Amino acid sequence: MTSTPHDHLLLSLRSVELELPDVTGAEAFFTGTWHLAVAARAGDTVYLRGTGADHHLLALSPAAAPALRSITLRAASIDALDELARRALAHGGTLLAARAPVSEPGGGHAVTMRDPQGRVLRFVAGDARHADTGDRADHPSRLAHAVLNSHDVAAVQPFYEALGMRLSDRTRIMAFIRIPQPGPGDHHSIALADADNDCLNHIAFVMPDVDSVMRGGGRMRDAGHPIEWGPGRHGPGDNAFNYFIGPAGVVIEYTAEVEQIDDSYEVGGPTDWTWPPGRIDHWGISAPPTARLKEAQRRIGFITSTENAS
């Protein structure tokens, strides 16, 4: 095993694992409409990939009610898994599964934790990658970020920073946290949204360009899924966006042109991210998020049974 610098324990956001009442219907949506592809199946779970190297971006498992099973982040090495577990435990996390080989498709080794507010996180190293990669118009390549609601952002943010993540910007309603890279990397991979709950806010998928974000919006609307917020261009991250409500009420985003930053980036505060009256993004053409979207962003909770977390 090779050693890993402690400030580069993580490489990226790998995947999100969901529990849904109708996996068959969700698979049809995510392949036929959202433009992912089936990477593998294991039992009743289906694993869906994008056009990038990640083995899968979503894992869909059947359950009576929708829930966020876990969020998986790729660690820099197998050694890094032990350090991540140590840091997590030292900062209020709970160990659910010690480092062990992963039996599900994608393989590798993983540890599974809960953060101090109950969210299930998996850290994986040595997982499989796809060789047939390449941007394809109107198809997601990878995950951009997962946004998580928090009833107390200030209380849980230090946990994520202890894992090696760093704050990029803090707005009035959200803390944007990145995974540092040796060079420029995504402005944020995780964001913590101020809320009265600890539910999933949304999952964002990277599209190859803004044209694909727009074409995806039209294609989704044709399929009966209206744009719930967008098109627009965010402040922090500077990324173009369209938001939708997917299967079982899961909020999903098409995004492109996520700002690439490094350690020279100056962290912004709430006063740096304000909009003129009537604007909620750089372009100023989008209406505010719909009431449907806001309600959906508070409905998908994390699983509570430790038996289903690993």
Overview of this protein structure:
The protein is α+β, with helices and mostly antiparallel strands and 310 residues long. It folds into two domains: 10-128, 2,3-Dihydroxybiphenyl 1,2-Dioxygenase, domain 1 (Roll); 142-296, Roll (2,3-Dihydroxybiphenyl 1,2-Dioxygenase, domain 1). Helix content is 17%, strand content 35%. It has five helices and 18 strands. A hairpin with a 5-residue loop joins β16 and β17 (251-256). The chain is globular. The chain starts with 9 loop residues before the first strand and ends in a 14-residue tail after the last helix. Mean pLDDT is 95; it is low at 1-6 and 306-310.
Quick synopsis:
The chain is α+β, with helices and mostly antiparallel strands and 310 residues long. It is built from 5 helices and 18 strands.
